[in-house]
Amino acid sequence: MGLYQAKNEEGSDPKSSSKIDDLIENEAEIIRLIKEDGKLLIDNGDGRDIHNIIQEDKLLSVEFNEVLKRFHGGEASDASHGVMDEDEDDKYDYNEQYEKTVHAMSTLNHIINKEVIPPENFSHVVGEIYRSSFPRLENFSFLHERLKLKSILVLIPEEYPLENMNFLKLTGIKLYQVGMSGNKEPFVNIPSDLLTMALQIVLNPANQPILIHCNRGKHRTGCLMGCIRKLQNWSLTMIFDEYRRFAFPKARALDQQFIEMYDDDEIKRIASEKNWLPLKW
């Protein structure tokens, strides 16, 4: 599994393990898999994932579904039907990123020049400022060779993955982390001072070219982008239109409220003193 190698835990009794446990090799893995409704790919060594194995064995499929029901109180959850809970957009999922990398590497291995693989939700913002979702292994060459990044600003509070840290050390790209929680009903959870701190990092030409990302590049990144657009004197209609296009299909009213209510006087004062404004295309 390379850089994303999963850690195997010992301690499960092979005699009492179910067939599912044998496939995954430990009880912790099946519990994690069940809680996340079987979305993760588990490599069993023969190139097949757990979904195929379960589908091929009717008895195993029945057992698996019964255990899922027990974990969800007897009813199938929205997640089991492919509808993600909103919180999952904000929480970094190491295994999900690994699954996407495996898929990308297997489907894009015919591409010799890996500089053409940007992260999901990638876009140019203004000048040498860029936005995206969480960068993965297959995106590293694009970020270094094509964008020639000086800095990355991450907006999640979780620890940055080891392979990403190794990439930054190897290329000399500086990491800034301003961890913040996403806005959830009924509260706005992004403090204005944290957003101002993030803007100071982004607007500083010494940190550019810079990439801004959270987990999926939608909500927290969208709030920061909206505040950048306010500094460019965009109308709220244009700002919200851009926000909704990147946040689709789960735009948050609280994010748009935060953008509208954000007091940009302090960042305008700082940016004016340092001649960071106006932002140039």
UniProtKB/TrEMBL annotation:
Compositionally biased residues, Basic and acidic residues: 7-20
One cellular component (GO) term of this entry: cytoplasm
EC number: 3.6.1.52
Catalytically driven reaction(s): 5-diphospho-1D-myo-inositol 1,2,3,4,6-pentakisphosphate + H2O = 1D-myo-inositol hexakisphosphate + phosphate + H(+); 3,5-bis(diphospho)-1D-myo-inositol 1,2,4,6-tetrakisphosphate + H2O = 3-diphospho-1D-myo-inositol 1,2,4,5,6-pentakisphosphate + phosphate + 2 H(+); 1,5-bis(diphospho)-1D-myo-inositol 2,3,4,6-tetrakisphosphate + H2O = 1-diphospho-1D-myo-inositol 2,3,4,5,6-pentakisphosphate + phosphate + 2 H(+); 6-diphospho-1D-myo-inositol pentakisphosphate + H2O = 1D-myo-inositol hexakisphosphate + phosphate + H(+)
Domain of life: Eukaryota
Tyrosine-protein phosphatase domain mapped to chain residues: 121-271
InterPro entries named in the record: PFA-DSPs (IPR020428), Prot-tyrosine_phosphatase-like (IPR029021), Siw14-like (IPR004861), Tyr_Pase_AS (IPR016130), TYR_PHOSPHATASE_DUAL_dom (IPR020422)
Molecular function GO terms recorded: inositol diphosphate tetrakisphosphate diphosphatase activity; phosphatase activity
Keyword hit for Nucleotidyltransferase: no
Location of region: Disordered: 1-20
Protein name: diphosphoinositol-polyphosphate diphosphatase
Species annotation: Saccharomyces cerevisiae x Saccharomyces kudriavzevii (strain VIN7) (Yeast)
